[in-house]
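# nightly structure sweep
# worker-07 picked up a monomer target from the shared queue
# config: single-sequence mode, recycle default, output format = structure tokens
# input follows
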Amino acid sequence: MHGRGRREFCAVMNGVIVGHVAFKSTNFLSLPFVRKEFQSRGIGCRLLAETLHQFHEATVTLPSDLAVKFYARMGFKLSGERFNDTGAWNTPVK
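# output follows
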């Protein structure tokens, strides 16, 4: 899907969307998820790896320590201090 600077990618199994990632403003990663029952099967890694082939760099703000660990395994590095601008702590990585 494309629209207003946004690109979306989905992982589909048996006609069901099991994973999703969107890029806003060319390389800002937004709304990544894998359905809970499909986690720990490599779907998130593959989805992210496939989408990153189209971008040389991506920036994402992570809402949880679990997400920070996942993106660190994918080669992302901290790119700033944790911040709280909406009542939830976020960690920026590139």
